[in-house]
Amino acid sequence: MARRPRGERYRAGVSTVPQAGGAPVDGVPPLLRAIVDDAALVAERPRPEMATVVDEHLAARATDAGGLLGSLVVPVSRLSELVAVLVKRRPSAPVPVALSVDTGLGGVPKALSLTSSRAALLDPRTVEMPAPHDVDSVWLERVTEFVPEDVVAVVEPRRPDADGSSDWLDGVRRVVDHGCRPKLRCGGGRAGAFPGVHDVAGFLALAVGAGRSFTASLGLQAAVRHTDPDTGFTHHGWLNLLVATVRALGARPDADVEDDIGEALRVTDGDTLAAELGGVGPDAAVRVRALFSSFGSTAVAAQGRELARLGLL
């Protein structure tokens, strides 16, 4: 049975280019506000230093492109460490955080209790967790028990290395139907961690068709699709995902939505993507960001520079 989206509520700051999505706020247009989640603390290796990450995150928020930043993703196992650093730094406002569950669901209530006791320092927005391979309604009910209604439950169904797995999309559909926000992992330390265009298109078509917000993580280090010369891995671009979402929302009833999405995902020219986003009006910007909630990046500072080069900031 489909459930009400958990914790879904419109937050200020989802609004694209000065002529695309309304007037910019602090230099960042509405379609791009709070779209980048700082995932430095969940980088695969090496283990990041907490004080360094916090200092860089707070400094990034104070720049002209600071409005791009959404939440700081923090592993539940390192939440106390984060609090200790923030106590010393005394941020001017609570830091939005996404709790990444690395201790099992049983650790979620204690983590949320800690954030509640430190409301002057932390603003918990989401609780994010990987799903078991056989994600089902029983496990999803446990998520419902541990994550309160005022926080968004974000679930990442495990995707096999083989592209085009219907079982994986079935898992995404169960997450969506249960009222949780699905997460798409876009990369990692091996080739199989990077989903193909077919899988990404299927994920986006499913989420947009259901009207459910989604998030993306890892692998989206740049705005535009490209191949890393050192690893040979082809990375999806988050602007590609944004344009694909725009196209999915505006698709005609007789259109092949996945083909149109796939075409957007394959674009490797940033100016082409920027020009298409330039036609997004204020109302469409709100609808797009109600679906594409955010993406995680370990290269937060680079996003602002690339967007400025493309004329989007």
Overview of the structural elements:
Helix 5 links the parallel strand 5 and strand 6. Strands 1-2-3-4-5-6-7-10 form an 8-stranded parallel β-barrel, surrounded by 7 helices. Strands 8-9 form a two-stranded antiparallel sheet. It has one domain: TIM Barrel (Alpha-Beta Barrel), CATH 3.20.20. The protein has 313 residues and is of the alpha/beta class. Helix 5 packs parallel to helix 6, helix 7 runs parallel beside helix 9 and helix 7 crosses helix 10. The protein contains 11 helices and 10 strands.
Write the layout of secondary structure elements.
Blueprint: E1 36-38, H1 50-61, E2 69-75, H2 79-89, E3 95-100, H3 108-117, E4 122-130, H4 137-146, E5 152-156, H5 166-177, E6 181-185, H6 197-210, E7 214-217, E8 226-227, E9 234-235, H7 238-249, H8 257-265, H9 270-277, H10 282-291, E10 292-297, H11 300-309
Parallel strand pairs: 1-2, 1-10, 2-3, 3-4, 4-5, 5-6, 6-7, 7-10
Antiparallel strand pairs: 8-9
Helix pairs in contact: 1-2, 5-6, 6-7, 6-8, 7-8, 7-9, 7-10
